Each structure stands twice: as structure tokens, then as C-alpha cells.
């Protein structure tokens, strides 16, 4: 007998095959492609269980429009899409909390799939967002499904959105519940919105801070027959400690499939063989029945995205993200100036979050804003020292390496997942990064108002909230140093600024250099 698990993860509100950069995109991803894939695969398979592994509420312009522009009490269009796909189980991702707990509770209530949430508890040690696990009888076989969410959520989420909640270690939680499940089940599956922290040889692939715990779970706990992972946006299908494992990228570019070939001996079921694979969705057309229900909201979004907001004198576009990170451009300077003006400081940091960013077209529209500033960050002001500032720039400088004298991207920022968002550029200071120098010694010039920055100097800097609380391993920043916040999401803040500044001048003061000089 075969048991088949089909899974999505990290769809981030991308229903249609578009990233909204252009009006008529037809990208090789989207939940509507996954819906067609589900239908096709279910027709071919027996004993199928369907799972979503979290991060479904936030991430796309559609998700933002529903939550922040229409101000709906819940993401009903997104929830209805999942409902029409007939999922069995779901877990919560870290981004489920971005729009607040009330919004999340309503999303859970209107969803047909059963949410499993073992390692998020309240002050009374209850599980307010879903039972720890569920047992499903599949053709006579009792299969336990344990739901887990990365405890890294607390490191970058707005604390107001997590009030009353405690995130426990996924590994510790699995150690508690898997033995309990084994007493009641024939097989057990972990559904974990978290990733893999070590390679197959046990070598760390990232800082071991508890954000991703798959290796620890599988290396220490018996009784796990399959695991669905996510969060890192990696593309993984294989085995770890002989357990089939999948991770399906993001935005619905793949559906994950685990096949368990079940044998029964002496009255007990066991996995005789297993297979894990990723099914590309680009070969599937969108599910037109579901798409028809979404056309009204899709048309509203496109009309909103294309409304002109301001004109540019000059050029804020670019087609080479790496060159921007090396040499800056007018788009980056503009974002920095908005942050500094809004927060009343003269030092700022921002990142070019991914390689889909392309700057602002003329005239600037909401489409430009949303597709360039993709995260629902708010702003904070930190009071830091000159030593903190230098340490932060040194951390950013790790983004670069050199090959044969040519500056390129450090492999750690590409694998196991792309982390371009952890390279910040700074405004209000003048500095030089020399990539030929060792890590921690690369900042060879650092001036504030034309004078060298000294270690004990008090400075105020505007940052997004993720970075302000130390996200991205910027340990010199933390919540205790925050002295001011702005509750508006950055995309809204940019839009508000443009409503009061209809003519924008593109400029670049080239305040930093990235060089290679041995």
C-alpha cells in the first residue's frame, strides 16, 4: 500500500502567476498552478493527504491590498482559495503574524484545513492557535501529523503581534510529542515551518540559533516517518537520516510529494520504501474555476497599483542589483532620505531585498513601491554608539568576497537560501569597505559630518524593525536601544511621502565605496 503526501509552503499570498512587476506577467509559480497540480496528482495517486506548511497570509501585493488597503478583517480571498483546494492540514509560518493576532485568528476560523500548532503556547500553556497534532486514518493506517513553527518568529516579528504567546523550540517540542504519538499511531509525519541547519555530514550551514532545527529533530528522535520543511525557500527532495524530506521553494513554484510504501508484518505497519520529489508547477495552467472567484480582487489590485503618485526628475531605475549594492543608486538614496525625514535623524540603513527589485519608474506608482519594497516592515530609531555602527557595517561587509581580484557575493548569502536582505547600505555617513581585508577589518574609512566616528560616540539611526531588533545576526542592535517607532508599514510610509512630494529629483551622493585593494 502507498501513502502519498502533497504539500505546499511559503506561498506568501501569491495566487496568480505574477509578481505584479508587470500587468500581464505569466510567471512559473502561484497557488492557482498548485491547485491544478493537486487535481492532476490526486487523480494518479491513492491515499493522498494534502498539507500547507505556512506563510500563506503575507508577502504579495494581493495580500497587502487585502489587509492594509481594503482593511478586510481577514484574508478571505486567500482562505477561500485554500479551501477550494481541499487541504487536510496546515501549520503557521512566521509571517502569519505580520498583520496581527486578530487577523490571524479570523484566517484560521474561516479555513477548512485543520491547523496544527504544537510549539506556540499561551501564558497558561494552552495551544490557542491549533492542536499540537492530529491523527488521520488513511485506509486503515493511523498517521500522526505534528505541526511546528520556527521559534525564530520572535526575533523579527513586531512584539505587539505576539502578545501572550511563547514560541518553544521545535526540537524540544517534537521530543515531547513524537513518543506520545507513537503510542497511538502506525506512522508519524512532522510538518515544520522551519528549515535545515546542517548538511548531511552534520556541518552547520548557518548560525545555530534555533531558527531552523530539522537536523536536530531527525538526528535525535525516533519514530518519524516523513518531514515537510519550509521557511528557508530552499528546493529539497531527498532523505536525511533515512527519513524522506521535502522543501518546496516559495510562491508555489513547486508542489512537494512524499510517497511512503507501507508494509505490514506481525500486525504492525512500517515504511518499506519511500520517495521524495518536487513537482514543478510551471507546466500546469492555473485553475480557472478558482481564478474566476478572484478576478474582482485582482482587477481592483491592478487599478490601485497603476495609479500615478509622483514624477521623477532623472532616473531611479536599474537592471543590475549587484551593481547597486556595490555603487549605490538614486533609488537607494531616495529610500534613505524618506527614512531619515520621517524619523527625524540623519543616519539611515536599508537593503535591496531581492534581485527582482528594479527601482522606480516614471511616474512612480504603487506597483513600483510594492514590488521594490516587498516586506511589511515598519521603522524604528535606535540610539547606538560609533562602535555599534562600525560593527554593523562590518557585518554587512561579509556579503562580499573576491575571486581573482573581482568582487562577488559571499556564498553564505546565496546558499542555503538567498539572503540579499542582510546586506545594508548606509546613508548620512561616508565609508569605505575593502573586500581584500579580513572579516571584521574591512571598514577602512568611516566619517560622520566629515569627522571620523569614534567608538563611544552617540548616534541615532533609522532602521526597519527586523534589523532594529537584531534580525540577520546584527547583534549590535536590539530592542533595548529603540527610542522611537513609526507604526506605518514602509510601503505605506513611502506612499504617504509621495502624496506630499509630487516631484522627486533623482540623485546619488556616492557616500560609500566597495573596493578590492590588497
Automatic annotation (TrEMBL):
<feature type="domain" description="5'-Nucleotidase C-terminal">
    <location>
        <begin position="322"/>
        <end position="478"/>
    </location>
</feature>
<dbReference type="Pfam" id="PF00149">
    <property type="entry name" value="Metallophos"/>
</dbReference>
<dbReference type="InterPro" id="IPR029052">
    <property type="entry name" value="Metallo-depent_PP-like"/>
</dbReference>
<protein>
    <submittedName>
        <fullName>Bifunctional metallophosphatase/5'-nucleotidase</fullName>
    </submittedName>
</protein>
<keyword id="KW-0547">Nucleotide-binding</keyword>
<dbReference type="InterPro" id="IPR006146">
    <property type="entry name" value="5'-Nucleotdase_CS"/>
</dbReference>
<dbReference type="Pfam" id="PF02872">
    <property type="entry name" value="5_nucleotid_C"/>
</dbReference>
<dbReference type="InterPro" id="IPR036907">
    <property type="entry name" value="5'-Nucleotdase_C_sf"/>
</dbReference>
<dbReference type="InterPro" id="IPR004843">
    <property type="entry name" value="Calcineurin-like_PHP"/>
</dbReference>
<dbReference type="InterPro" id="IPR008334">
    <property type="entry name" value="5'-Nucleotdase_C"/>
</dbReference>
<dbReference type="InterPro" id="IPR006179">
    <property type="entry name" value="5_nucleotidase/apyrase"/>
</dbReference>
<keyword id="KW-0732">Signal</keyword>
<comment type="similarity">
    <text>Belongs to the 5'-nucleotidase family.</text>
</comment>
<keyword id="KW-0378">Hydrolase</keyword>
<feature type="domain" description="Calcineurin-like phosphoesterase">
    <location>
        <begin position="4"/>
        <end position="234"/>
    </location>
</feature>
Amino acid at each position: 500500500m502507498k501513502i502519498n503526501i502533497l504539500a505546499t509552503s511559503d506561498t506568501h499570498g501569491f495566487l496568480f502567476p505574477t509578481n505584479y512587476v508587470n500587468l500581464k506577467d505569466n510567471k512559473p509559480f502561484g497557488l492557482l498552478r498548485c491547485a491544478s497540480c493537486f487535481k492532476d496528482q490526486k487523480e494518479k495517486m491513492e491515499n493522498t493527504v494534502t498539507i500547507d506548511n505556512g506563510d500563506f497570509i503575507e508577502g504579495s501585493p494581493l495580500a497587502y491590498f487585502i489587509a492594509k488597503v481594503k482593511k478586510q478583517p481577514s484574508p478571505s480571498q486567500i482562505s477561500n482559495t485554500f479551501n477550494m483546494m481541499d487541504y487536510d492540514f496546515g501549520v503557521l509560518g512566521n509571517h502569519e503574524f505580520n498583520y496581527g493576532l486578530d487577523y490571524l485568528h479570523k484566517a484560521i476560523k474561516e479555513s477548512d484545513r485543520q491547523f496544527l500548532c504544537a510549539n506556540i503556547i499561551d501564558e497558561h500553556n494552552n495551544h490557542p492557535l491549533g492542536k499540537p497534532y492530529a491523527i488521520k486514518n488513511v485506509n486503515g493506517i493511523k498517521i500522526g501529523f505534528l505541526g511546528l513553527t520556527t521559534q525564530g518568529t520572535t526575533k523579527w516579528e513586531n512584539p505587539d503581534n505576539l502578545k501572550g504567546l511563547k514560541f518553544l523550540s521545535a526540537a524540544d517540542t517534537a521530543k515531547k510529542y513524537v513518543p506520545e504519538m507513537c503510542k497511538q499511531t502506525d506512522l508519524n509525519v512532522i510538518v515544520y515551518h522551519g528549515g535545515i541547519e546542517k548538511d548531511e555530514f552534520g556541518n552547520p550551514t548557518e548560525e545555530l540559533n534555533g531558527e531552523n532545527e530539522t537536523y536536530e529533530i531527525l538526528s535525535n528522535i525516533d519514530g518519524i516517518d516523513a518531514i515537510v520543511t519550509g521557511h528557508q525557500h530552499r528546493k529539497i527532495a531527498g532523505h536525511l537520516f533515512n527519513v524522506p524530506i521535502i522543501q518546496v521553494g516559495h510562491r508555489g513554484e513547486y508542489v512537494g510529494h512524499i510517497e511512503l510504501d507501507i508494509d505490514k508484518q506481525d500486525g504492525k505497519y512500517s515504511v518499506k520504501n519511500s520517495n521524495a520529489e518536487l513537482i514543478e508547477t510551471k507546466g500546469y495552467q492555473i485553475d480557472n474555476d478558482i481564478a474566476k472567484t478572484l478576478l474582482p480582487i485582482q482587477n481592483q489590485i491592478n487599478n490601485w497599483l497603476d495609479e500615478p503618485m509622483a514624477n521623477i526628475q532623472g532616473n531611479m531605475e536599474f537592471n543590475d542589483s549587484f551593481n547597486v549594492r556595490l555603487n549605490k543608486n538614486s533609488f537607494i538614496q531616495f529610500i534613505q532620505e524618506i527614512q531619515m525625514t520621517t524619523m527625524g535623524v540623519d543616519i539611515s540603513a536599508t537593503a535591496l531585498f531581492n534581485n527582482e527589485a528594479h527601482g522606480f519608474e516614471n511616474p512612480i506608482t504603487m506597483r513600483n513601491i510594492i514590488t521594490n519594497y516587498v516586506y511589511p516592515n515598519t521603522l524604528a530609531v535606535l540610539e547606538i554608539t560609533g562602535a555599534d555602527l562600525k560593527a554593523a557595517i562590518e557585518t554587512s561587509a561579509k556579503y562580499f568576497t573576491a575571486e581573482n581580484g573581482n568582487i562577488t557575493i559571499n556564498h553564505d548569502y546565496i546558499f542555503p537560501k538567498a539572503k540579499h536582505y542582510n546586506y545594508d547600505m548606509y546613508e548620512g555617513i561616508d565609508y569605505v569597505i575593502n573586500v581584500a581585508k579580513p572579516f571584521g577589518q574591512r571598514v577602512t574609512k568611516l566619517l560622520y559630518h566629515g569627522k571620523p566616528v569614534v567608538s563611544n560616540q552617540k548616534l541615532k539611526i533609522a532602521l526597519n524593525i527586523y534589523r532594529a531588533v537584531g534580525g540577520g545576526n546584527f547583534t549590535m542592535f536590539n530592542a533595548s536601544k529603540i527610542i522611537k517607532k513609526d507604526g506605518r508599514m514602509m510601503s505605506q510610509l513611502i506612499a504617504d511621502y509621495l502624496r506630499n512630494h509630487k516631484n522627486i529629483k533623482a540623485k546619488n551622493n556616492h557616500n560609500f565605496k566597495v573596493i578590492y585593494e590588497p
